Task: inverse folding
């Protein structure tokens, strides 16, 4: 990785944190639990790394670790989105 | 091909941002969550098209196992168990980051650029702490691990030494990436640190711990992004990291505690506070039965209900909803006042009441309703204690001094439903019970509220 691309990654990182702060501070307290489980599902984006790690052709320690990572990240993704949906569909106004 | 993958990751990131943006209102939140999920699906599909992925059997098996476990958890967990569920999910996120970093270390086998090396070490550390820390938090919430503040000898020096050792080992690894045993040592110590850091945090502080671990799980994802040089992981991870930090701040403010104070452990004076002798000096409490209470409610015009976790423990949400219905049928104005730390994680009480089909426009946050209490005829406190203790306003010797509370004592009458006179979660005596406008309504929350509803129906 050259330093230029590292700087770009840091740019993205810093700007995304600012976007995060702006977005999250507008979420009302009433939705904080679904926000947490929903953002949790988003952090399951590590699945991308897990898939790349698990998909190598030869079977090595690296792919075994990747396979477990796929399971972990998928629990996070599927569990997070489904439970968030289950909660949000209960919020009704009469 | 590469450009298509890159653009798809960008689209997916935008979906995440829109998804969270739509969480700003209960009207659009469900759609927002769906959009966010579509973003995730795009990311997964696009990754599967990557030319580096050559064998699919293990991937498919992993995807299926993970999806099944996740789906079962999502449908089986009761709403009261939501903090545990979020705790476990945080843990798996952190665990995945650790595994990906380890996997990448072995794949590169010694040929690791400095930046990648730093990112791998950071991933291992943050991911490892998140994984075991979340599992301990889960255990505490589930009652498997003690909810008490656990002290062990040389707590702070020990943790500091372990942290310094990990970072030192990390520097060595970055300089000489062939030392694979050192990577395993870093992983092990990070996992150990997670246990040691969360164990001292008391049960009452779990909302803070869960929020903080939520932030860590995001940060772990972002560091994995640096390992793989993938912008989407960095964006998604940062969003979650920011979210966890904001919720942590809100929780700390609501308890008037500094983050350091929570993380270092212990509500120092909890459990050793005022003895019975000081309470008897405050005089007698007035208790009321369901018949009298029904008449008080019948003559009231405006009612605010203050629910606490005790309501959920007694499974009284549905009884409370019935109470709201009968009061509204009688033409009374009923609202809920919800303290930020009511329940066991941010926003927990709202979910529990939503499940009982209480309309969400009746659920008001502390800052939106606190000024209304002086105009209220009856405030009904169910299963809450410390968050309505007026000592927080004036008693400098109280452990909760300075904590923002709901001003229930300003209402014309405040009715407190409790099983007995025992102290609250934080082990602190509540002077509110002895106030002239306070009435105690003893009994199990569910039974007591049901009885009140029956009496009200007969009037």
Result:
């Amino acid at each position: 990785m050259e330093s230029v691309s590292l700087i770009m990654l840091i740019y993205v990182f810093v700007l995304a944190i600012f976007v995060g702060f702006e977005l999250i501070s507008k979420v009302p307290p009433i939705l904080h639990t679904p926000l947490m489980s929903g953002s949790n599902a988003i952090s399951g984006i590590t699945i991308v790394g897990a898939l790349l790690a698990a998909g190598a052709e030869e079977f090595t320690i690296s792919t075994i670790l990747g396979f477990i990572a796929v399971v972990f990240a998928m629990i996070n993704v599927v569990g997070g989105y489904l439970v968030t949906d289950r909660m949000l569909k209960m919020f009704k106004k009469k | 091909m590469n450009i298509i993958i890159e653009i798809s990751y960008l689209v997916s990131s935008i979906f995440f941002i829109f998804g969270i943006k739509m969480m700003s209102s209960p009207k659009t939140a469900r759609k927002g969550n769906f959009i966010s999920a579509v973003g995730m699906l795009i990311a997964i599909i696009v990754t599967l098209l990557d030319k580096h992925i050559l064998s699919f059997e293990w991937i498919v098996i992993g995807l299926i196992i993970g999806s099944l476990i996740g789906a079962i958890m999502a449908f089986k967990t009761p709403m009261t168990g939501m903090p545990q569920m979020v705790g476990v999910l945080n843990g798996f996120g952190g665990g995945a980051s650790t595994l990906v970093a380890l996997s990448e270390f072995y794949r590169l086998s010694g040929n690791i650029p400095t930046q990648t090396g730093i990112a791998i070490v950071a991933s291992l550390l943050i991911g490892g702490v998140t994984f075991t820390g979340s599992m301990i938090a889960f255990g505490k919430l589930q009652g498997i691990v003690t909810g008490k503040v656990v002290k062990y000898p040389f707590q702070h020096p020990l943790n500091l030494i372990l942290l310094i050792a990990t970072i030192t080992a990390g520097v060595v690894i970055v300089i000489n990436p062939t030392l694979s045993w050192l990577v395993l040592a870093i992983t092990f110590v990070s996992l150990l640190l997670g246990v040691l850091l969360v164990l001292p945090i008391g049960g009452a502080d779990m909302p803070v711990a869960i929020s903080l671990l939520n932030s860590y799980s995001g940060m772990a994802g972002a560091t994995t992004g640096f390992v793989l040089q993938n912008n989407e992981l960095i964006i998604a991870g940062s969003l979650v990291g920011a979210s966890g930090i904001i919720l942590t701040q809100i929780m700390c403010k609501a308890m008037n505690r500094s983050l350091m104070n929570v993380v270092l452990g212990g509500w120092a004076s909890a459990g050793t506070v005022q003895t019975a002798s000081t309470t008897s000096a405050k005089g007698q409490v007035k208790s009321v039965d369901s018949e009298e209470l029904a008449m008080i409610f019948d003559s009231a015009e405006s009612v605010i209900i203050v629910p606490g976790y005790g309501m959920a423990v007694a499974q009284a949400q549905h009884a409370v909803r019935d109470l709201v219905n009968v009061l509204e049928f009688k033409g009374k104005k009923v609202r809920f006042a919800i303290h930020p730390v009511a329940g066991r994680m941010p926003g927990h009480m709202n979910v529990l009441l939503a499940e009982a089909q209480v309309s969400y426009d009746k659920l008001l946050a502390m800052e939106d309703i606190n000024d209304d209490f002086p105009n209220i005829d009856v405030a009904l406190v169910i299963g809450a204690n410390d968050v309505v203790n007026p000592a927080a306003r004036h008693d400098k010797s109280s452990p909760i001094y300075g904590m923002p509370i709901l001003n229930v004592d300003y209402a014309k009458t405040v009715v407190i439903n409790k099983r007995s006179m025992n102290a609250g979660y934080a082990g602190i005596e509540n002077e509110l019970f002895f106030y002239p406008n306070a009435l105690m309504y003893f009994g199990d929350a569910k039974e007591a509220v049901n009885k009140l509803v029956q009496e009200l129906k007969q009037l």
